[in-house]
Amino acid sequence: MIGLELRQLEYFVAVAEERNFTRAAARLHVVQSAVSAGLKTLERQLQAELVHRTSREVSLTEAGHVLLPRARDTLAAARAAIDAVDEVQGGIQGEVRVGVTSSLPDIDLPAALARMHADHPRVRVRLSHRPGGSRDLADDLAAGRLDLALLSEPGPAGHRLRLTPLVSVGMHLVVAPAHPLAGRGAAALAELSDDVFIDFPIGYGSRSIVDRAFIAAGQSRRISIEVTNAEAATAYVREGLGVTILPDAYNHPGPTLRIIGPGSDNLTWSLSLATARNRHPGAATDMLAAMVEETAHRSRARRQRATP
């Protein structure tokens, strides 16, 4: 890649990930014509077409697919070199792309981001969610589209990630006050065959855990409503529209029951801090990760003090 400019590779990666020149330009805070011209220059130097252009979005050519992971690695190496110089000179700068799940119990992420901004004002943090929950976050992290992620169940991409556990709790059944099981302290999954469930979409960590528990118990269930956060799940349960199984880290305003019997051993929910195994995280990413871990540690300590 001698003769290629890092900026051209940055334009290419942004276009490849956003699938759109306008969104790529907005992400990089440049005009669209600069992105288009930079990509054309890169294609001319490589003597290869990298993207198929249409009026609505772009897609990668075979050459583009080959170049993308190498371009990401090159940019990551350049960032690491800059980080090393910045650390020697006493300052950290750059960008950290963070992916998060819809709910983060016991993690005061706003406080961690505020401290990061106060201590390292030259670091830009881009925070985003993914429609497919933890599995999408894991895929994007492994592919180099994110630097750091807070996720539950990484799915197939898990072996490509470094996972630092932050929270690990059991899960309880949440029912409406008028539900036949509301007066009980515990229930088995087999007793829920006639109930309908409120749950997260496929790909969300909590959904994957509960699905595995029912399979282990040899039971099936019906899901009537899919939601993206625990507050919505409990709201539907409160109205008698179904039941749900949620991690203990969430507040449960309604009656909760301990789950016993076959499958119950599978009901442990965890939240981890994740980075890709094949890339150095960089100084800014490491610093933010340490701040997030600290908030989790303080939350665990408060919970332990509050437990009788």
UniProtKB/TrEMBL annotation:
Keywords carried by this UniProt record: DNA-binding, Transcription, Transcription regulation
Keyword Transcription regulation carried by entry: yes
Protein's UniProt keywords contain Transcription regulation: yes
InterPro entries: HTH-type_LysR_regulators, LysR_HTH_N, LysR_subst-bd, WH-like_DNA-bd_sf, WH_DNA-bd_sf
Pfam family, one: LysR_substrate
All residue ranges annotated as the HTH lysR-type domain in the record: 4-61
Family annotation (PROSITE patterns): HTH_LYSR (PS50931)
Superkingdom field: Bacteria
Alphabetical list of PANTHER family matching this protein: BLR3139 PROTEIN (PTHR30419:SF31), HTH-TYPE TRANSCRIPTIONAL REGULATOR YBHD (PTHR30419)
Annotated family: Belongs to the LysR transcriptional regulatory family.
Protein name: LysR family transcriptional regulator
Organism: Streptomyces pulveraceus
